[in-house]
Specification:
It is built from eleven helices and ten strands. By secondary structure, the chain is α/β, with parallel strands linked by helices. Strand 4, helix 5 and strand 5 form a beta-alpha-beta unit. Helix 3 packs across helix 4, helix 4 crosses helix 5 and helix 9 runs parallel beside helix 10.
Length: 268
C-alpha cells in the first residue's frame, strides 16, 4: 500500500455544461475521501457555493481554470498570454475564497484545466503566492518539456512551486495490466482508467496494481465519473463508485493527504 494518497477532484460542470448530479457526486466524494484536494472552477464557485463551503471543512480548496467559462473559444490556459492567465487564475481564486468563506491567500494549490499549463503559468502562480501545482500529467506534453512531464514523484519546479504530478506506472509487458496498455504501457492514476476495461483487464485490476506498486499515489476524478448523466462513459455512476471504494478501502484513512500536507512534509 502507498505511504500516502493525494486523491483529488477536478470540480467542474458536466461535459454537457449542466450541473446535474454534481452536488450528489461531491457528497459521495466527501464521504469516501477523508482528506483530499478539490480543484474547482469559477462557475462552480459562483453557482454552487454551498458545495464548496461544505467541502472546505475537510478538504483543501484549489483553483481549477477552464478558459471557456470566461468566454474563450478553447480551454487551453497555456495558449493565453501571461496577463490573461493571471486574470483568470485571480478571478477564480477570489470566487472560491468567497464561496469557502476563507481568505484568498489561504488558497495556494492549483491545477490547470486539461492539464494545460506552461512555464508562464508557473511564473504567474508563484507571483500570486501559490505554493503548489498539480497540472503535470505524463499524457499531456504539448506545453511542457519531457523533462517535466515524465516525472511522477513530487518535486520542486524552477519557479519554486511544489509540483504534485499525476502518478503513473509501467507494468510488466507480460502481465494482464501490461497487455491492457500495449503499446503505450503508461498507466495513469485517473478515474477514466478506473472506469475503463480493456483486453480482459478491468480498470479496478489495473489501478490496484498501480496502488500496490508505488510509495505515493496522486489520483484524480471528475464529478461526472460518479454520476449517470453521460451514457457514453463506461462504468460511470454506481459502478465507478463501487470500484473507487474497493480501490481505496485497503488504504488507512491516515494516509489520505492534501497537496498542502505533502508540501509541509516534503516541499518546504
Amino acid at each position: 500500500m502507498p505511504d500516502w494518497i493525494a486523491f483529488s477532484v477536478d470540480l467542474e460542470p458536466n461535459k454537457d455544461d449542466s450541473l446535474d448530479g454534481v452536488a450528489g457526486a461531491m457528497d459521495w466524494f466527501d464521504q469516501v475521501i477523508p482528506r483530499g484536494n478539490v480543484y474547482a472552477t469559477h462557475r462552480i464557485a459562483t453557482e454552487l457555493p454551498g458545495v464548496i463551503n461544505a467541502l472546505a471543512a475537510d478538504h483543501e480548496i484549489g483553483v481549477h481554470v477552464h478558459p471557456r467559462e470566461f468566454g474563450h473559444e478553447h480551454d487551453q490556459l497555456a495558449e493565453l498570454d501571461k496577463d490573461r492567465q493571471r486574470e483568470l487564475i485571480t478571478e477564480t481564486r477570489i470566487a472560491l475564497a468567497r464561496a469557502a468563506k476563507i481568505s484568498e491567500h489561504e488558497i495556494t494549490a492549483f491545477r490547470a484545466g486539461r492539464h494545460s499549463a506552461n512555464k508562464a503559468t508557473f511564473s504567474v502562480l508563484a507571483d500570486l503566492g501559490f505554493e503548489m501545482d498539480s497540472s503535470i500529467n505524463v499524457r499531456y506534453t504539448d506545453y511542457l518539456p519531457d523533462s517535466l512531464t515524465s516525472r511522477r514523484d513530487p518535486f520542486i519546479l524552477e519557479s519554486g512551486l511544489f509540483e504534485l504530478p499525476t502518478t503513473y506506472g509501467r507494468p510488466p509487458l507480460l502481465s494482464l495490466t501490461g497487455l491492457r496498455l500495449f503499446p503505450d504501457r503508461n498507466l495513469t492514476a485517473t478515474a477514466n482508467n478506473l472506469r475503463t476495461d480493456r483486453r480482459g483487464c478491468s480498470g479496478l485490476h489495473a489501478l490496484s496494481w498501480l496502488r500496490d506498486t508505488v510509495s505515493g499515489l496522486s489520483m484524480y476524478m471528475h464529478p461526472y465519473d460518479a454520476t449517470v448523466y453521460h451514457e457514453e462513459l463506461s462504468n460511470s455512476g454506481a459502478v465507478f463508485r463501487k470500484r473507487a471504494e474497493r480501490l481505496l478501502n485497503p488504504i488507512e484513512s491516515s494516509a489520505f493527504v492534501s497537496a498542502s500536507d505533502l508540501y509541509d512534509s516534503h516541499g518546504k
